[in-house]
Amino acid sequence: MNPRDIDTALTVAREQAAAWQANADLARAAGTTETLGWHIDRSDERDGIARKMFEAWQVIDGTMTGNLGVSRPEAWRVPPLTDEQYAKVVADWPELAIFGEDLVKDLTRHVGIRYVRWLARRAVKNVPALTAPAPHPVVDEDSCTCVINCDEGPQSGCSLSGRLHVHPRTRTGQYGPCPEHPDAPGDL
Fold it and tell me: Rounded to 5 degrees, what are φ and ψ at 104?
């Protein structure tokens, strides 16, 4: 079995599960009419079947885990929409336009159109928050040069420790006037 062929792996797993069940049913139906050796042989057969099922499952699990479920057995995929179905859905659900035609078709192949519609509704609901102007100018988070606690040592502490304040710029460029808080108190 090709280690990447998950369709074959799923087929093998299903066949082996059916063979295991048939073998177990045969052993149960025989009951006490067969010898202990016969029952042991059936048990050994089931062990071999279980080993093949396990190997098939490893292929399926390894492939799907390795690519986050994008590759999956064909039997687990959602049937694609026909062109007529797709046209009707796009006409009835305009929110799908937020993703674009290609992405909607790809997503429906994996998760189905109703889930894609739910995602589109969530995206449309959040559009106003994303397009609203920022309440204040966007400033780089790392641009603030303010200090709050500077009293780690008795000699280095200042009277403003515990409050947002500024210190003079050092030779390394640390501290100095704060672009985010131009009115911060301190000794510049």
Answer: -60, -45
- What sections of the chain are H helices per DSSP? 6-30, 36-66, 83-92, 101-111, 113-131
Give dist(CA 168, CA 149) in Å, integer: 15
Q: Could you give the CA distance from residue 113 to residue 103 in angstroms, rounded to a whole number?
A: 11
Q: Which pLDDT tens digit goes with each residue over 19-55?
A: 999 998 988 888 878 888 888 898 899 999 999 998 8
Structure tokens at 108: 């429906």
C-alpha radius of gyration, the chain, whole number: 33
Task: Give residue 173's pLDDT band: very low, low, confident or very high (50, 70, 90).
Answer: low
- Nearest-angstrom CA–CA distance, 146 and 126: 34
CA 177 – CA 184 distance, rounded (Å)? 8
Q: What is the pLDDT of residues 117-133, one digit of tens each?
A: 999 999 888 888 777 77
